[in-house]
Amino acid sequence: MSLRAPKGTDDILPPASRVWRRLLNAWEQMAEVYGYDLIMVPIFEMTEVFSRGVGESSEVVQKQMYTFDDKGGRSLTLRPEGTAGVVRAFLQAGAQGVMKVSYSGPMFRYERPQAGRRRQFYQVGLEYLGSPEPDADAEVIELGYRYLTSAGVPDVTVRLNSLGDAACRPAYVEILRSWLEDRRSLLCADSQQTLDLNPMRVLDCKICADVVAEAPSPVDSLCDACQAHFASVQERLVADGVRYLLDPRLVRGLDYYTRTAFEYVGSALDSAQTALGGGGRYDGLAEVLGGPPVPGVGLALGIDRIVLSVPDPELPAIDVFVANTDTRRAEALLMLGELRSSGIRSDNLPDQRSLKAQFKAADRRGARAVVVVGDEWETGQVVVKRLDDGSQETIAREEIATWLKSH
Ligand code: AMP
Q1: Is the CB of 204 under 6 A from ligand 1?
Q2: From the CB of 123, is ligand 1 less than 6 Å away?
């Protein structure tokens, strides 16, 4: 039997990979436009970065990590998410002040594979470190919203909640614990266990959704400072035209998550995998990783799910195909070089074929136009034929790039 990719992983080949490239390029561009620098951190870290940074009691750490000992006997883990490594890098560099960074790359979780739930999946994300201000939260949320909307995801909505902070959350957790204790027998076995460890995580349980639908929300227990922060975030989202809904059930059950928590949903996926991404404020994380306090807020978006959510536009591989008559291959290669220098996506066949075969290839690659290099080359001209309406013109060689950009 021939070898196959491991369960829960995907090969992303053309033409499907064209959508991926478009989404990843758009991400780089948008992050840069909003002032986020690039950060690159290792794909594997000391296991402790995640066991502390994602949280011992989380499902990811308990059940889903790819952890192994290397040949030097160190326990390493393939990253299941991006934030812990980025904050570790910030602390290790002794960075100070504000740092806004974006990243993209594969993440690894041992999951039960299905559509939109993979063992290797691809995230883009960003972290806004060093600012406790609500404007930072709103900027991060807005960027993700704009990205998903401009990528073509239908009906993007932000689900938004506030989880409070060290001042008000402990009291909320006790209110929630006693409310859940009264209903312990209605909870699933897992949630009964989670209740003892971390009551907020019970709100996350899909099986217990009906039971916890009326549970007290952290929003009702916010202290004045958290309330003011939450109100400011919402004010800016409204001003920025971001569509959001308050979701009192949206939680992250770890202590270092503070205040803002959010998730993006779209309408194109079935219910289990509707979350396209999420994020929140994590003012306690740097200390959990052994550093000084550093406020931060970030997001991560799952490209695999975004690809499933956007229409498949059958993107062309190239814009322009260069064809040539039998004796003009060398000239055609010159032409091709000139087009590529002008930034026009262009290609030809690797060997000499009939014009008919070359036009067929142009069609297959999705080209808009074919530039034919023939005897007109002697007078500095080429023929350009548009494939959509079949029209053709003879144009001066040095004008061709400008012509193609404007047609
Ligand atoms: P999380 O870090 O769990 O909040 O995930 C953020 C986003 O990453 C999710 O909303 C998904 O879009 C994506 N994601 C998380 N886990 C997976 C997975 N196993 N397969 C595909 N995408 C995932």
Answers
A1: no
A2: yes
**Predicted TM-score (pTM) above 0.90:** yes
In short, whether 129's Cβ falls inside 6 Å of ligand 1 is: no
Which of 309, 331, 350 is the endpoint of a domain? 309
How confident is the model over 369-396, as pLDDT tens digits? 999 999 999 999 999 999 999 999 999 9
> Domain check: are 235 and 371 in the same one?
no
Tell the residue nearest (CA) to atom 13 of ligand 1: 302
The domain that holds 39 is classified in CATH as: 3.30.930.10
Is the link from the previous residue into 15 a cis peptide, with omega within 30 of 0? yes
* Contact 251 CB / ligand 1 (< 6 Å): no
- Is 188 among the domain residues? no
Residue 61 sits in the same domain as residue 114: yes
Confidence of residue 352 (pLDDT cuts 50, 70, 90): very high
Closest ligand 1 atom to Cα of 279: 4
- 40 and 160 share one domain: yes
* Best probe residue, ligand 1, of 9, 63, 121 (max atoms within 8 Å of C-beta): 121
Which residue among 286, 309, 332 closes a domain?
309
